[in-house]
Amino acid sequence: MRIAWRYQNQPKFESSPSHAKFGHYFDLTRVMDEQKLSSVPVQTFSVTSEMSKCLECSEERKSAEDNVYRMLISRIKSAIKDGGFTTASEKGLENRTILRLVLHGLGSPLWGEEQHISNEISSALTRFLFQLRATLRSALAVCLVTVPTHLFQDPAFTRRVERLCDTVVKLESFVGSENETNPVYKDYHGLFHIVRLPRLNSLVSHVPDSFDLAFKTEAKENDD
């Protein structure tokens, strides 16, 4: 069968469409190229070394904890200013990018937060989050923070931490829970809870169809 000349260059369509998968898929085994990483400035903040310095200057661990958060927010402000990531900066407008910050395990014992595991509550963590949020409002930057809330004994403190963030999500694993044998979740490994969504420059935040999403992990086959 010959196709008319006017349709020869048109894209071909399958008579039986392939099976479409529902949802989003992410390959957690992928890593960034080393050349791409070496082409951008990367700064790190060692909590253990900074905490030891603060303990040498202060006998009380609570004061050392406050000093670590002060040093961290100072480093973040310097990175924003020196890198030209402030919204008022005119440095390299044609090649401006976004500063990406990652803070892992904030509020854990690594950061000197043993008091949250007990009944005593310190304002150092919430004060730091308030300063961080205010700093990023006038910067071309985004910050991802992980917090081990399962270590906090006071649910009210967890709510305070959530209120100081623009977006809050929580992962719930089915391992060891009653949902592991629930037939409703037999094809999934956990839930992705949307606790809080951003409300920037608007009166209300976006309301999704569901605040509880399911996730499933799959082992990747080795091509070797």
Automatic annotation (TrEMBL):
Keywords: Cytoplasm, Nucleus, tRNA processing. Pfam families: PAXNEB. Transmembrane segments: none annotated. Its main location: cytoplasm. GO terms for cellular component: cytoplasm; elongator holoenzyme complex; transcription elongation factor complex. It comes from the Eukaryota. Pathway: tRNA modification; 5-methoxycarbonylmethyl-2-thiouridine-tRNA biosynthesis. One of its GO terms (biological process) is tRNA wobble uridine modification. The keyword tRNA processing applies. It is found in: Cytoplasm; Nucleus. Belongs to the ELP4 family. This is Elongator complex protein 4. The gene is ELP4_2.
